[in-house]
């Protein structure tokens, strides 16, 4: 019944004549039922066609094939399918799926008792997982900041007063450099035009600092391993210091050295 309706539409029958032509061909059968069925059929066909083009669906299909093959102990074939999904996820920068794929890979290797890789290779794969998590976290933070700023722009409008500018302080990170620091950093800050949008990333030669979220810096070291450091500059200025005892407890010290009673 719905085929007749499709043929009429395909032959460019006008909408005004569609109902009467259908009734003549189908001897008064339910036109509305045919319309609903044709609608569902066309929609299902479009979804099937879209699946071939949808990258996310393709990635999931590779993952599904890998899981099926691994369950049937076809391990080499499973890793091949998983590698296809990994390449596709990397190409289209789909980080959530890339993280899932790398974790599945580690699960497979663990189930096989890591027979095919060395400890160094295992650590490298684990670091790849950490890299994806770190990048995804950074991307998410940028997206959240953008959404907050967009929300404020929509609901509060552009900044037109000092008070409105102060209200943004909860989203502002102050950049500063000591004039005694490397001239490169001082000049870099001076040369940033007012109103510029900048993105900050922090890296360290020592990977042990990669996951640090809060840190304190200091100009000088006063005591190292229980001994006073020599060659310190003499002077009188307010100072704050922090130290750690042998038992791990912390000591905080502050002084306003410009006062006569300090």
Write a brief caption for the model:
The chain is mostly helical. Helix content is about 55%, strand content about 5%.
Which secondary structure elements does this structure contain, and how are they paired or packed?
Layout: H1 2-10, H2 15-26, H3 31-53, H4 55-71, H5 75-91, H6 95-111, H7 119-156, H8 162-166, H9 183-190, E1 223-224, E2 227-228, E3 239-244, E4 250-255
Antiparallel strand pairs: 1-2, 3-4
Q: Structural class, please?
A: mainly alpha
Strand content: 5-15%
Unreliable segments (pLDDT under 50, ≥5 consecutive)?
none
Give the number of DSSP strands: 4
Shape: elongated
Biggest sheet character: 2 strands, antiparallel
**Into which percent range does the helicity of residues fall?**
55-70%
> Can you list the strand order of the major beta sheet?
1-2
Radius of gyration: 33 Å
Order of helices and strands: HHHHHHHHHEEEE
Q: What average pLDDT do the residues reach?
A: 81
* Gap from first CA to last CA: 98 Å
Query: Counting H and I runs of at least 4 residues, what is the number of helices?
Result: 9
């Amino acid at each position: 019944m719905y085929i007749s309706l499709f043929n009429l539409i395909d032959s460019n029958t006008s909408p005004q004549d569609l109902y009467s032509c259908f009734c003549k061909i189908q001897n008064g059968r339910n036109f509305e039922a045919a319309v609903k069925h044709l609608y569902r059929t066309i929609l299902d066909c479009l979804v099937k066609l879209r699946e071939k083009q949808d990258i996310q669906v393709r990635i999931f299909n590779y993952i599904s094939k890998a899981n099926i093959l691994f369950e049937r102990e076809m391990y080499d074939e499973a890793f091949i399918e998983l590698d296809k999904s990994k390449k596709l996820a990397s190409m289209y920068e789909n980080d959530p799926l890339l993280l899932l794929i790398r974790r599945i890979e580690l699960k497979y290797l663990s189930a096989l008792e890591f027979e095919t890789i060395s400890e160094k290779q295992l650590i490298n794969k684990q670091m790849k997982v950490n890299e994806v998590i770190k990048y995804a976290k950074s991307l998410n933070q940028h997206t959240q900041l953008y959404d907050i700023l967009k929300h404020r722009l929509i609901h509060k409008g552009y900044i037109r007063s000092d008070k409105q500018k102060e209200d943004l302080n909860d989203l502002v990170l102050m950049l500063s450099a000591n004039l005694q620091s490397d001239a490169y950093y001082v000049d870099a800050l001076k040369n940033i035009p007012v109103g510029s949008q900048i993105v900050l990333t922090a890296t360290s030669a020592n990977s042990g600092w990669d996951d640090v979220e809060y840190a304190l810096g200091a100009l000088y070291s006063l005591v190292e391993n229980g001994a006073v450091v020599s060659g310190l500059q003499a002077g009188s200025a307010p100072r704050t210091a922090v130290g750690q005892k042998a038992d791990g407890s912390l000591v905080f010290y502050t002084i306003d050295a410009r006062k006569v009673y300090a």
